[in-house]
Write a structure and sequence with these properties.
The protein is 28% helix and 24% strand. With 335 residues, the protein is of the alpha/beta class. It is globular and about 60 Å long.
Length: 335
């Protein structure tokens, strides 16, 4: 029998699924067989892996027999339906949806931050929201050094975070604007080209969106800080790929800007990019395609003696989804 793992990618035709296939290939993931799954309308079509076509299969119990790891890039409703079935077939599910993130029995893992959490899995390991991952990466070294007491985070989220439909809408609207044609929003509630939308999804009665609640609750779970005060705002911006987050973090013990630069530079998965005098700071166009999160514009908060402000950018299709899923996790086998 050939060495390696049998790996399934569910949602293989979507933006996150396609990036998962790309990263499995780039990282020479040790697999002996790849099985691809997508919605019913895609069954029988193919995706490309290592230069070869892979036929899309129907999601059904028998199709997962012999699978070791299943990367699930489907929506939350599909994940709730598929994941237990896949686990019952004998696989470990790495789920990227919101379905299991806050389940107390399911570890929510960022490998650089809390790999120990994966040891307690019962068949399902959850990946955080893409904005949460980008935000929490620089928060972890600050928390270890000074103990976080409050975080203010405003995200500027690329349209690819909304899937292939978001990408298509920005492209179509930009071309329509250039041709002088009318713009009709379809995927987003408002025009996204040359505009900002200050609510990623539905605003609830308390004034916050589900995306903002994810940022609060998931950050607390990952950092194991249930009482951490977090003030979130999430904004959709006309950028194709990479989420940016403006963060102000307060700590119990003061962390100077110089110390923070050193902490960020040493932390795995973070890259310091902080020389404003030379116009050197993280930008989506420079970070796209990278697995690390880039942090810069580091400065002490003028309004708080123990506050620190900075800007962090990450490719949400890679580190914010696919890379985070594929990276090694202690106690979770090869995943």
């Amino acid at each position: 029998m050939a060495a390696g793992l049998c790996v399934a990618v569910v949602g293989a035709t979507g933006a996150a699924g396609q990036t998962t296939l790309k990263i499995l290939e780039e990282r020479k993931f040790p697999l002996r067989e790849l099985r691809a799954f997508a919605s019913e309308r895609s069954v029988g079509k193919t995706v490309t892996f290592r230069g070869e076509p892979v036929t899309i299969r129907r999601v059904e119990p028998a199709a997962f027999k012999g699978v070791d790891i299943a990367f699930c890039s489907a929506g939350s409703a599909q994940a709730r339906e598929y994941a237990p079935m896949i686990v019952k077939a004998g696989a470990t599910v790495i789920d990227k949806s919101n379905a299991y993130r806050m389940d107390p029995d399911v570890p929510l893992v960022v490998p650089e931050i809390n790999p120990h959490a994966a040891r307690g899995h019962h068949g399902i390991i959850a990946c955080p929201n893409c904005t949460t991952i980008v935000t929490v990466m620089p928060l972890k070294p600050l928390h270890d050094a000074g103990k976080l007491t409050r975080v203010i985070a405003t995200s500027f989220q690329a349209v690819s975070g909304a899937g292939v439909g978001g990408i298509a809408e920005l492209r179509e609207q930009t071309l329509a604007w250039a041709r002088g044609e009318p713009i009709t929003p379809r995927h987003f509630p408002h025009q996204i080209a040359f505009n900002l939308i200050p609510a990623i999804d539905k605003v609830e009665s308390d004034g916050y969106t589900g995306e903002e609640r994810k940022l609060v609750n998931e950050t607390r779970k990952i950092l194991e800080t249930p009482g951490l005060r977090i003030a979130p705002t999430t904004v959709r911006v006309p950028v194709f790929t990479s989420h940016s987050v403006s963060v102000t973090a307060e700590t119990e013990v003061k962390v100077s800007a110089a110390r923070a630069r050193d902490l960020f530079a040493r932390f795995p998965g973070l890259r310091l990019w902080d020389d404003p005098a030379q116009h050197r700071y993280p930008m989506p166009i420079a970070v796209e395609g990278q697995d690390d999160c880039f942090v810069g514009r580091i400065r002490e908060d003028l309004s708080s003696p123990n506050g620190l402000s900075f800007w962090v950018v990450g490719d949400q299709l890679r580190k914010g989804a696919a890379t985070n899923a594929v990276q090694p996790r202690n106690g979770a086998g090869q995943t």
